[in-house]
Write a structure and sequence with these properties.
binds magnesium ion; globular; binds adenosine-5'-diphosphate; 2 domains; Rossmann fold; five-stranded parallel sheet; 18 helices; alpha/beta; eight-stranded mixed sheet
Length: 394
């Protein structure tokens, strides 16, 4: 896994397919200082892991055919929304025509000077990032995951969402992707009429207005999209539906907090592809630490960027014979946040109110607010609007 920071604007790419001249091109691209070639697989399906979880700026598909490889491109699209560049060898006039009509950012006919290819890839990668910034798809996706049940995923997700909505004044969606046994709604004591299941089986295209019709507003200001009521309905929430849901949610929310189940299933992979920050919840028990370590390995296999990963040590003050430094040594990763074990949490859970609201002066609430501020700094303008209304108008 690379430790590149996003401000260096490296272009992360993954390559699928094959054509004459591709091996030489791959070698040249791999040496280029502004590109990070995450990997290559001839068959698109073999690249499913990095394509879904890899946060790619651009995907390159190579073809020796003179026609657009529509099936392969459609498969790539199921995995990722990153811009697509097709490279082709040979006679390809028809391919160019077809690409114009399709969702392809660029077509390059080999052989080409490496610099030209690099320029086209960086341009496509940039346009994808630019689109994300300007077409309103700006909401940040914060996914809370742990490979163990009971470590505090739902407590963390609900309290972070409450911090963002109530104290940070962000438009906040809490998405419960613990599809079989989600309990975010219960922890917030809301009785929703609609769930994510109703949303995905509803006919027609999803857009922000439609999404708004399926969420339930919590008193703290969070919009909640709960898990299905019946566990068997979970499988209808497919990767493609979920990908679309996240894209639409980013248009209407500042932040989307995703609560999860302890598994890397399809919906989780689709979510990882769109996750800006992954909060990995760890505890002070050896089995949990072991599974968090395995999760880190899986994330590495998926090429999930390390700079998007934050480990949160829950119940960090528990006196159970393990220390933070020992956990860090076992995980080989620094712990980003510590949250204490606090009686305020189960009390709040049983009242159905997030602890940060129910007992805002508790140690837990203070720690959680710190986590929220660090993940998503409070909007300075919003604060000014609140305190200086006369200036806001000028
Ligand atoms: N920091 C904490 N202090 C005290 N109790 C906690 C804390 N974090 C979680 N808990 C307790 O652990 C239980 C399980 O947490 P939960 O968030 O439901 O786990 P998960 O979603 O990972 O399965 C909660 O009901 C809560 O009472
Ligand atoms: Mg949970």
């Amino acid at each position: 896994m690379s430790g590149n920071t996003p401000d260096r604007e490296m272009t992360r790419l993954y390559v699928t397919g094959a054509c004459e001249g591709l091996p030489e091109l791959l070698e040249a691209l791999g040496r280029h200082p502004e590109l990070e070639v995450v990997g290559w697989s001839e068959r698109v399906v073999d690249g499913a892991g990095p394509l879904t979880g890899g946060h790619l700026d651009v995907v390159v598909h190579a073809t020796g055919s003179s026609e657009l490889p529509a099936e392969e491109l459609a498969t790539i699209r199921e995995y990722t929304a990153a811009p697509l560049v097709v490279v082709a060898a040979g006679e390809a006039s028809r391919l160019l025509e077809e690409a114009l009509a399709a969702d392809v950012a660029d077509v390059l006919l080999l052989p080409q000077l490496t610099e030209n290819v690099v320029f086209a890839l960086r341009k496509a990668g940039r346009s994808g990032r630019h689109m994300q910034r300007t077409t309103g798809t700006a909401g940040r996706v914060i996914t809370v995951f742990s490979p163990k049940g009971g470590t505090g995923k739902t407590v963390t997700a609900t309290n972070l969402a409450a911090c963002f909505a109530k104290f940070g004044r962000k438009r906040t969606l809490l998405l419960d992707l613990d599809l079989q046994f989600g309990d975010a709604a219960i922890m917030l004591s809301i009785e929703p009429e609609k769930t994510i299941h109703d949303l995905v089986v509803a006919p027609g295209e999803l857009d922000p207005e439609k999404l708004a019709g399926y969420t339930t507003r919590h008193a703290s200001g969070i919009d909640v999209l709960p898990a299905p009521v019946r566990p068997e309905d979970a499988e209808l929430v497919t990767e493609s539906k979920l990908s679309r849901l996240l894209e639409v949610a980013r248009e209407s929310y500042d932040v989307i907090v995703v609560d999860t189940s302890p598994f890397f299933h399809g919906p989780m992979l689709a979510t990882l592809d769109r996750t800006d920050t992954l909060v990995l919840v760890c505890g002070l028990e050896v089995p949990t630490i072991k599974n968090v370590r395995l999760s880190l390995q899986t994330l590495e296999l998926l090429s999930f960027p390390t700079n998007r990963l934050k480990v949160l040590l829950n119940r960090a003050n528990s006196n159970v014979g393990l220390k933070r430094t020992e956990v860090e040594a076992a995980l080989e990763v620094k712990i980003a946040f510590e949250v204490p074990s606090d009686r305020a949490v189960p009390v709040a859970v049983n009242r159905g109110i997030p602890a940060v609201v129910n007992d805002s002066q508790s140690d837990f609430a203070r720690a959680m607010r710190g986590v929220a501020d660090s993940l998503l700094p409070a909007d300075a303008n919003a604060a000014r609007r609140r305190w200086l209304p006369s200036l806001a108008r000028s």
